Amino acid sequence: MITLETYFDYVILPILAISVMLVFIRLFKGPSVVDRVIALDLIITIGIGIITVYSIRSNQKVLLDVAIILALIAFLGTVAFAYYIEKQKDD
Amino acid sequence: MIKIILALLSTGGALSILFASIGILRMPDFYLRLSVTVKASTLGVGLLLICAAIMFPDVSVTTKAIAIIFFLIITAPIAAHMIGRAAYFTGTPLWKGTVVDELAGMYNKETHELENHPDEGTDERGNIAETSKETK
What we know:
Chain A has 91 residues and is an all-alpha fold.
């Protein structure tokens, strides 16, 4: 019988790490700028998930504050990229 | 009992995030990638945060988790809509198997606004509806 801690260590965190690697392939390959923007957005969102799982695993609830800040940064970054990409075509 | 619930929720969240990343790698088109990514990643992170809210028996952690979920659900569609709009204006190509493009010719390329010609608008929409019926 496996405990919940070993399940988080050997199943959940490796799945999330593999997801980040797959998104990094798209970040390097991406044919246009917008592909790279949504790849960055997805990487930050997966980072929120990793921080959550790590805070459960290590019993430190302070780490959830970092998740709030990361959610804010992801939204502001994507909106700023969209705004300036649209402006750039104008000129 | 609560451990089983935690294991099920975290497994669902992790698999949903994995599907989102496979989707962003394998989909043929920017718009399909956007459509896969936003929904699946929001669901996955939401499930993981619910897992954290159940795990810590504390009001402050539950409040923070609910706040993050609420913020993600509100802001993810806005960001996706803005980046999709920017991609459509900069002329990101559609997949070659795309059936219908309802925005074709409707946007004014210079002012970035929908053109206000009600007759043309209804006419084009009618045509598009007919063609989509035919293709089905």
